[in-house]
Design brief:
With 379 residues, the chain is α+β, with helices and mostly antiparallel strands. It is built from eleven helices and 15 strands. InterPro entries: ACP_syn_III_C, Thiolase-like.
C-alpha cells in the first residue's frame, strides 16, 4: 500500500478580521439591542479576532461556501499542480449553501473542474473525514492525489434578523455558572468563516518538508449518546424532531434552522466521550507513546475547554505539556470543519517543524459525540 503525504495546505479567510467590538456592527443587534450574552461568551471563549464573509462596511455577503472553498483549492495551484491534475476533490462542511446538490459538486462548479467528487457531512469532524477519505483512497492505490477540504460559512446565519433576543434568565444563568451556554444567541459569538484545502499525494515533496499521515482514527458514540448540537429541527421529550415534521409556521417561528446546542449535556460529557474514552483505546491499539509527541494540535471551540482537555489527558496518564500545544483559535476563530486545516497550515509554514517530529491532531464534535485523532510525521 502507498504512503500518504500532505504536501501543501492552503487557507482562505475572507475579508478583514473582525474584532470583538465590531461583531455586532457586522452581524447586527437582535431587536436593535446589544446582546447581554456577548461579553460573557467572549470572556470564556478567548477569541479576539475572526473572519466573516460579510463585508464590514457594506454588510454585503462577499462569498458563499462553495466560492470560499474554491478559493482555498486555488491556493494549492502552482508550477507542480494545476486544477486539472486533481484526481478527486473531497469536501467536508457543516454549512453547505443548499440542501442539495452536495457541497463538493457546487465547489467543482466554481472551479469549472470535472473530476471525482466526494462530500462528507457532519459538523467539525467532517473536515477530518474528508482527509481520511483521501488518505484511504491513496493508501489503497485508488488515487495518486486528492484534495481534501474543510470549510464553513456561518456568519450569514448569525445575522440579527434570524434571532430573538436572549431572555434575562438565560443571561443570569450564564453569569452564575460561569460557563458558555451554547444556545442560539450565544453561538453567534462563537463561530466564524474560513476554508482550508490540503493536497494529499503518494510521494513527498522533493523540496521542503511534507507531513506523512501515519493514521487517522474516528469514532462516534451516537449509539449511546443523544443529540447535543443540531440545526434543522428541535428536541421534544428527549427526542430529536426533524424540521420535516412541522409546518412552515412552526419552523420559522421556532427558528429551527438556527444552530443550537445543549450546554449541560456538552459540559457533562465532552471530555469523556471525545478525549478520555476514545484516546485510551487509540493509545492501546496504536501503541501511542506520549514521549513521541512533539506537537499537539487540538481543535476546541473555546478556551473554556482548554483546562478541561488537559485534565482529561491527566486522567488517562497521557500528559502532553502545554508548551507542545499549538492553536490559533484566539486570532483566527472557531471555523468548525476548517479549523484543523487552518491550524496545520500555520504550523507547517512557520519554519518551526523539523523532520522526524510527530504531530497529534485532535478534532472533537459534539453533534452526537464523535471524535477524531490523526498522527502526522514531518518528513
Amino acid at each position: 500500500m502507498n504512503d500518504v503525504y500532505i504536501n501543501k495546505i492552503s487557507v482562505f479567510l475572507p475579508n478583514e478580521p473582525v474584532t470583538n467590538k465590531e461583531m455586532e456592527d457586522v452581524l447586527g443587534k437582535v431587536n436593535d439591542q446589544a446582546s447581554r450574552a456577548r461579553r460573557i461568551t467572549l470572556r470564556n471563549n478567548g477569541i479576539k479576532k475572526r473572519y466573516y464573509v460579510i463585508d464590514k462596511e457594506s454588510k454585503e455577503i462577499k462569498y458563499n461556501n462553495a466560492e470560499l472553498t474554491a478559493m482555498a483549492v486555488r491556493g494549492l495551484v502552482d508550477d507542480n499542480l494545476s486544477l486539472e491534475d486533481i484526481e478527486c476533490l473531497a469536501c467536508g462542511t457543516s454549512s453547505p449553501d443548499q440542501l442539495a446538490p452536495n457541497h463538493t459538486v457546487m465547489t467543482l462548479g466554481e472551479l469549472a473542474l470535472n473530476t471525482e467528487g466526494i462530500a462528507t457531512a457532519g459538523i467539525c469532524l467532517s473536515g477530518l473525514i474528508s482527509l481520511k477519505y483521501g488518505y484511504m483512497a491513496i493508501k489503497s492505490e485508488c488515487n495518486n492525489n486528492i484534495v481534501a477540504t474543510g470549510s464553513e460559512v456561518v456568519s450569514p446565519m448569525f445575522m440579527a434578523n434570524h434571532y430573538e433576543a436572549l431572555s434575562r434568565e438565560k443571561v443570569d444563568e450564564l453569569e452564575k455558572n460561569g460557563r458558555v451556554a451554547f444556545e442560539k444567541d450565544f453561538l453567534r459569538f462563537m463561530l466564524s468563516d474560513g476554508a482550508g484545502a490540503a493536497l494529499l499525494q503518494d510521494t513527498p515533496n522533493k523540496d521542503g518538508i511534507s507531513l506523512k499521515i501515519e493514521w487517522i482514527d474516528t469514532i462516534s458514540y451516537a449509539g449511546e449518546m443523544p443529540v447535543c448540537m443540531y440545526q434543522g429541527g428541535k428536541i421534544e421529550n428527549n427526542k430529536f424532531m426533524s424540521w420535516k415534521q412541522f409546518d412552515k409556521e412552526e419552523i420559522f417561528n421556532q427558528n429551527m434552522f438556527a444552530v443550537a446546542q445543549n450546554a449541560k449535556l456538552l459540559n457533562e460529557n465532552i471530555v469523556e466521550y471525545t478525549i478520555t474514552k476514545p484516546l485510551s483505546e487509540i493509545i492501546e491499539r496504536r501503541n501511542l507513546k506520549v514521549e513521541d509527541i512533539d506537537y499537539f494540535l487540538p481543535h476546541y471551540s473555546s478556551e473554556y475547554f482548554r483546562d478541561k482537555l488537559y485534565k482529561g489527558l491527566e486522567e488517562i496518564d497521557f500528559i502532553i505539556s502545554k508548551e507542545k500545544w499549538f492553536t490559533n483559535l484566539s486570532y483566527k476563530g472557531n471555523t468548525g470543519s476548517a479549523s484543523i486545516y487552518i491550524i496545520i497550515e500555520e504550523l507547517l509554514n512557520s519554519g518551526k517543524l523539523q523532520r522526524g517530529e510527530k504531530l497529534l491532531c485532535f478534532v472533537p464534535e459534539s453533534g452526537r459525540f464523535s471524535t477524531g485523532f490523526m498522527l502526522l510525521e514531518v518528513v
